[in-house]
Amino acid sequence: MNFRTLSRWLAGAAFVIGFHASALSQEFGTREEAKAMVEAAVAHVKKVGPDQAFKDFTDKSNKDWQKKDLYVMAYRNDGTCVGHGANDRLIGKNLIELKDPNGKPLIKEMTAAAAKGGAWVEYDWAHPQTKKVETKVTFARKLDNFDGWVGVGVYR
C-alpha cells in the first residue's frame, strides 16, 4: 500500500469514526441533559401542577419530556408511579420493591436520593431503544408541591 492510498484510507476511517460518534451523541442523552431535564420537570410541576405535569411527562407526543433516550419518570414517596415517559403501563403501580437484575432496590434508592435534595443513583436496566441491560444512572429530585420526586436517567 503506497502513502497516497494509506492516506485516503485513514481519512475515510477517520470520517466514519467521527460520523458514528456524532450520530451516537445525537441519539443518546448525557448526564448534563438528564439533570437539566429534571430541573425543567420540577419547574413544570410547580407551574402547571402535579396532575397535569405527570400527564405531560407520560404523553409520548410531548417532545419536551422525551428527548433522545431520555424521559421523565415521577413517583410518590411510597413508590407509586405517577408519570413515566417510557412505559405508561407503570402508572398507578407501587414499585417500591422493584430491583434491578443485581438485586438493587432502585425506587427505594431514588426516593432516598431525592429526599436529600437530589442525587444520582446507579443501577442496571434494559435500554428502551436497544433492549439490552446496561448501566444507567438516574438523577432524582424531590418535588416541593407533591409528596414525591421526578427523575431522568442516562445510560452509560
Task: Give an account of the 3D structure.
By secondary structure, the chain is an alpha+beta fold. It is built from four helices and six strands, in the order H-H-H-E-E-E-H-E-E-E. The longest helix has 25 residues, at 3-27. A hairpin with a 2-residue loop joins strand 1 (66-67) and strand 2. Strands 1, 2, 3, 4, 5 and 6 form a six-stranded antiparallel beta sheet that branches. Helix content is 40%, strand content 25%. The protein has helices at 3-27, 31-48, 50-58, 106-115, and strands spanning 66-67, 70-76, 81-84, 119-126, 133-142, 148-155.
Summarize the structure.
The protein is an alpha+beta fold and 156 residues long. Helices cover 40% and strands 25% of the residues.
Percentage of residues assigned to helices: 25-40%
Succession of helices and strands: HHHEEEHEEE
**Radius of gyration over alpha carbons?**
19 Å
Shape: globular
Count of helix runs: 4
Number of strands: 6
> Mean pLDDT, rounded to whole units?
87
- Output the structural class: alpha+beta
Please summarize the sheet with the most strands.
6 strands, antiparallel
Strand content: 25-35%
Question: Span from first to last CA?
Answer: 38 Å
Q: Detail the poorly predicted runs.
A: 9-25
